[in-house]
Amino acid sequence: MAVVLEGDGLSTVQMQSFTDWTNLSEATFIVQASEPTADYAVRIFCPGRELPFAGHPTLGTCHAWLESGGRAKSDVIVQECGVGLVKIRRGPGSSLSFAAPPLRRSGPLGESELDLLARGLGLDRGQVVDHQWCDNGPGWQGILVDSVDTLRSITPDSQLLAGLDVGVVAPSKDGADFEVRAFFPGNNGLTEDPVTGSLNAALAQWLIGSGRAAHSYTASQGRELGRDGRVFVEQIDSDIWIGGESTTVITGSVLL
User: Fold this and answer.
1) What is the pTM of this model?
2) What is the pLDDT of residues 155-173, one digit of tens each?
């Protein structure tokens, strides 16, 4: 992902055009916060659309902000974005974690929604253990399947699932507690994401809240894309924290 440190003065069209030009999964633009308790505000874009919230861009933006000299007003960094204020804390080394924002929509999927997802993912209904709305900005629809083998066998139908944000989770057997796959609209149809903070945040709220997951666990994501992403989940009091490592790969200047 890309982070533009000086986003004030750029129009939505300029932000979207730059995001599409980078050909990266997301681009974020740091702008002046309107909330007095926020340390900074950010606008988050992926190819073709703006997102009110996303996890990976939240941690990456905070990493870039801190690296550029940003100083938080308190021990917890506060980001303002489309879903409101999001708390971020620093961990060991370069690790950061954010507190999962409240869900905009939760509860079981409707019968027609579940039927469409099952067909679009190539699943038998017997392979679906549970399902839930996991909308925390991106309108994730979550499916819990019976095994990691089922999860890995999924070949999504891009036409049936066009325009949908779909997350699938299963108990893992390879060094993590759960394995996750995420599908969402991209420039060229349905895209699979290697690591998805917003989805993992919503899944954690569902899985921990329903007693299907412990208050601390690790999720694996990206295996089908040749990646080995790890997302660390921990509930402390009423907050569920989603964490990972952030690294700067390239720095430079762009005239927009």
Assistant:
1) 0.88
2) 999 999 999 999 999 999 8
Q: Are 220 and 175 a contacting pair, CB within 8 Å?
A: yes
Determine, yes or no, domain membership for 148.
Answer: yes
Q: Which residues contact 227 (CB under 8 A, 6 or more apart)?
A: 194, 195, 221
Are residues 147 and 86 located together in one domain of the fold? no
Token readout for 87 is 């708390």
In a domain, 228, yes or no: yes
The residue from 36, 71, 101 where one domain ends is 101
Contact 102, 75 (CB under 8 A): no
Within a domain: 255 = no
If you count them, how many residues does the chain have? 256
Residues 21 and 134 in one domain: no
Q: Could you give phi then psi for residue 127, rounded to 5 degrees?
A: -85, -10
Q: What is the CB-side half-sphere exposure of residue 77 using CA atoms within 13 A?
A: 22
Asked, for residue 243, whether it belongs to a domain, the answer is no
Q: 167 near 196, Cβ under 8 Å?
A: yes
pLDDT tens-digit series, residues 101-139:
999 999 999 999 999 999 999 999 999 999 999 999 999
The total of structural domains in the chain comes to 2
In Å, what is the CA distance from 47 to each residue of 4, 25, 185, 186, 238?
A: 16, 7, 9, 6, 33
Q: Which of 39, 29, 33, 41 shows the shortest CA–CA distance to 5? A: 29
> Which tokens sit at 117?
């997802």
25, 52 contact by CB (below 8 A): no
Report residue 187's pLDDT band, with 50, 70 and 90 as the boundaries.
low
What's the domain range around 130?
111-238
The last residue of one of the domains, among 101, 130, 165, is 101
In this structure, the strands spanning 216-221 and 229-236 are antiparallel
What phi and psi, each to the nearest 5 degrees, are found at residue 247?
-135, 135
